[in-house]
Write a structure and sequence with these properties.
The chain contains 15 helices and 13 strands. The chain is globular, with a radius of gyration of 21 Å. The strands form two sheets. Strands 3-2-1-4-5-6-7 form a seven-stranded parallel beta sheet, sandwiched between helices. It has 384 residues and is α/β, with parallel strands linked by helices.
């Protein structure tokens, strides 16, 4: 059915477009939105570029969403043909694109497929290419021009993510607004839940445990994390660390840990379905030395269970959910500087969980409210 021929009371048909349905922050947010959104108002489907079945694909289908596939963008003609087929066959009112600078081609095809509402959603804050790479600069500028021309709405998880994708003048563009990646606050209200315990991992109950959650990729800066932990252990010999997540660099990082002799006290847990429960069960402080981020979900998850957090200084200002809960250190600072902040943060202890949940809600991170706002956004954009 063509989008223009449906009744106002029909659900708005929305196609979210993502690279994969793995276990990253975008995918976890999308699963929770698909579970929470009012299906009487919104029919939400997902189009992916990954030929492999992702870990979250089955849960997404269980919400009532369809999962459709396109060839990878490295085959541009086949990709564009498949995407246009899906969009025209589905009669979508809205395309909600997430693959950062590749949003431009997605929205270009969407406009030519007759989709009236086209949303680019910035979830990262990649640094601008250095001037010594003029071709990268030209690509960035071209990608931004296409996105700004083709989109009807722009969303960003933070001010830094908005500036990175839409440019420094984003505040003057009435189409662009901030929408942080919300989370299900009931995850924090229902603690404790089943999770690994210190006894399971052989960690003493009186140890100070550093936690980290992130894919094993260069942006997460695991090398700085290990440097910081080694320095922290020199002042706190009983310290331990748990790493949550998976990714291509995991074997390399694990070899580095073994070579340092810290494999007895650094525990790589892999993917965990319930990150807040793991942080609550095991950790005293959460550390995130990322080189760049849009609005990392783990900061909210750590704050939500009452943990102090140590993060890179340049990450989004919106991450300061509570006073004295978030410590900032330059990503380039030596491990000793990170260790000093870890000591101070851990010494501050846990915070009242109810106050933490209230702070996250005040920051716009309540998933149920955001799902309602998204439904309103789609409906207003389509029907006026």
């Amino acid at each position: 059915m063509d989008a223009s021929s449906r009744m106002v009371d029909d659900p708005v048909r929305v196609a979210h477009i993502v690279a994969t349905l793995g276990v990253g922050g975008i995918e976890r947010w999308l699963l929770q939105v698909a579970s929470a959104i009012d299906r009487r108002r919104v029919q939400l489907d997902v189009i992916v570029h990954d030929p492999k079945t992702g870990a979250l694909e089955h849960p997404i289908r269980q919400t009532g969403s369809r999962v459709l596939r396109c060839p990878p963008p490295s085959r541009p003609i086949a990709w564009a043909t498949a995407l246009r087929h899906h969009l025209e066959a589905g009669g979508y009112d809205v395309v909600h694109a997430h693959p950062y600078r590749f949003c431009g081609p997605i929205l270009w095809v969407s406009r030519r497929s007759g989709v009236p509402v086209r949303i680019a959603h910035s979830r990262n804050a990649l640094p601008a290419p250095p001037w010594i790479r003029p071709h990268a600069r030209l690509f960035e500028h071209a990608a931004r021009r296409v996105i700004l021309r083709e989109m009807t709405l722009g969303l960003a998880v933070s001010s830094t993510a908005a500036a990175a994708l839409f440019g420094g003048g984003w505040t003057r563009d009435r189409r662009i607004r901030l929408m942080p990646s919300a989370i299900d606050l009931d995850l924090f209200r229902k603690l404790p839940r089943l999770a690994p315990t210190r006894a399971d991992l052989g960690i003493p109950e009186d140890a100070i445990v550093v936690g980290h959650c992130g894919g094993f990729r260069p942006v997460k800066n695991h090398a700085k994390l290990l440097e910081a932990f080694a320095s922290f252990r020199r002042s706190t010999p009983s310290a331990a660390m748990v790493l949550i997540g998976d990714g291509p660099l995991r074997p390399t990082i694990e070899r580095t840990i073994r070579a340092s002799g810290d494999d007895r006290v650094v525990h790589c847990l892999g993917h965990q379905d319930d990150v807040p429960a793991v942080l609550n069960s095991l950790c005293d402080v959460c550390v995130l030395p990322s080189l760049w981020e849009g609005l990392p979900r783990v900061v909210a998850e750590a704050v939500g269970v009452g943990l102090p957090v140590v993060i890179s200084e340049h990450l989004a200002p919106e991450l300061d959910y509570l006073p004295d809960r978030v410590w900032r250190v330059p990503a380039s600072a030596p491990g000793s500087a990170w260790a000093e902040s870890i000591v101070r943060a851990a010494a501050s202890g846990r915070y009242d969980r109810r106050a933490c949940i209230d702070a996250l809600a005040a920051a716009g991170l309540d998933l149920s409210e955001q799902a309602h706002r998204l439904a309103n956004l789609y409906s207003t954009a389509v029907h006026g």
